[in-house]
Design goal:
Length: 417
């Protein structure tokens, strides 16, 4: 059987999580102006004050769809939608006046469309430090409804999400950190550290599937997280991971549970890890989850590094991409697609770069990733209606990334070596 560290290294093939840059953007509160979302406002204000990050407040008005036997489904008339937007904006401003100190510097953004998609996209564009949502009241129905909203956001977001418990009034002081010893859980813990009370007590918990000693793994993870000097108790649990963590959070009076999720790519993220799902639905306290895509995105950005970005003139695309292929074929890269509807989606990591070519007749760029051109096995991704080609090179002239933009977003390749 592989050791946990060997399995981790084989599965991720990334830089150690402890080296990855953490989000540095604003703290974002998502609210609909109702009392059920009060904890998002108060929680976000606490986190913004702790980190010194700006506070941004966002609310989404989803279009109402009217169904009819003859009409099918059609959106409501703008004459109805406009007043709903004005009403929601006023609700949010009333909520801010009720909950935040007078003169609090914040900005309210009103978004439209599907709430989870709109929030995930906006958080991505702002490089959000954390996206805060309320968990609703303690009743089972309210908890389930708000929990499902949090889960839908987590399926799409590539920034950490903080689901704030009702009545939150201070920074977390007793924190349960769930770890499976992977870089994903390390990244989640590091991202959460900046949001905690400076004197917080940490419970580092692992749900074991065997009786082997885990002391070395706990030591390694504490070093990677950077909590050697903090009050930390190692905890080994047994049983179903999600249920065991929920039960232990209640038994230990934790006021925050921290977890990461694995995987990248849109379809993998449609089904979140069962642990994160059970924590969001059942934990008796606030929950902080860093999606696996957040760690992968941080690794992608870290590998890009500093350097010079060149925007290639259109009449040079064919020659420049042919030269790019000759210089970089065989290098490992990550592939990220920026989609205006789904947001940024990391599609793969540690993929061999095969080639990239421009077809001026159809104004499209074909990206080929796979085992080998000679073997004839590769994945092909076509970027239609190309509007921009950019190449990022480091200060030594070595290519670090390629960005191909189009009307529908962009495709980004970032080299790992």
């Amino acid at each position: 059987m592989q050791s946990p560290s060997a399995a981790t290294n084989k599965a991720t093939n990334e830089r150690p999580a402890g080296e990855l840059p953490l989000p540095a953007g604003p703290v974002i509160a998502a609210t609909d102006g109702t009392p059920e979302s009060d904890s998002a406002i108060t929680g976000a204000q606490l986190l913004a004050a702790r980190t010194g990050a700006p506070l941004r407040i966002m609310t989404v008005v989803e279009p109402v769809i009217v169904y009819g036997l003859e009409l099918g489904s059609v959106p409501t008339d703008p004459l109805v939608y406009g007043p709903r937007r004005a009403m929601q904006r006023e609700l949010v401003h009333d909520q801010i006046r009720r909950l935040l100190p007078t003169g609090t510097d914040t900005q309210v953004t009103l978004l439209g469309g599907n709430a989870a998609l709109a929030l995930a996209r906006e958080a991505h564009d702002l490089h959000g430090r954390v996206l805060v949502l309320g968990r609703g009241r303690h009743g089972l129905v309210d908890r389930m409804m708000l929990g499902e909203t949090v889960l839908r956001v987590l399926q799409l977001a590539d920034v950490p999400v903080f689901a704030a418990e009702p009545g939150i009034a201070e920074l977390p002081k007793r924190v349960l950190i769930a770890t499976d010893f992977s870089p994903y859980s390390v990244y989640a813990a590091r991202a959460a550290l900046a949001l905690l009370d400076p004197d917080a007590t940490l419970l580092l918990a692992h749900v074991a599937s065997h009786g082997d000693s885990l002391d070395a793994e706990f030591d390694r993870v504490r070093r990677e997280i950077g909590i050697e000097q903090m009050r930390v108790d190692d905890v080994v649990l047994t049983g179903s991971p999600g249920s065991s963590l929920v039960e232990f959070a209640s038994r230990s009076n934790a006021d925050l549970v921290v977890s990461g999720t694995h995987g990248y790519g849109f379809f993998n993220r449609l089904v979140l890890g069962s642990v994160a799902t059970q924590l969001v639905r059942g934990a008796p306290c606030s929950v902080f989850v860093a999606p696996g895509s957040a760690a992968v995105r941080a690794a992608t950005r870290a590998r890009s590094g500093p350097g010079e970005t060149r925007t290639i003139p259109r009449d040079e695309w064919h020659r420049a991409l042919a030269s790019f292929t000759r210089a970089n074929a065989g290098r490992q890269c990550s592939a990220e697609i920026e989609d205006p509807v789904l947001g940024a989606q990391v599609q793969g990591n540690a993929l061999p770069f095969v080639a990239v070519a421009y077809d001026h007749h159809d104004s499209e760029v074909q990206v080929m990733l796979g085992a080998s051109r000679l073997a004839g096995r590769y994945l092909s991704h076509v970027v239609p209606d190309v509007t921009e080609v950019q190449i990022l090179a480091d200060f030594d002239g070595r290519d670090r990334a390629l960005r191909v933009g189009n009307e529908g977003g962009a495709t980004l390749l970032t080299f790992a070596d």
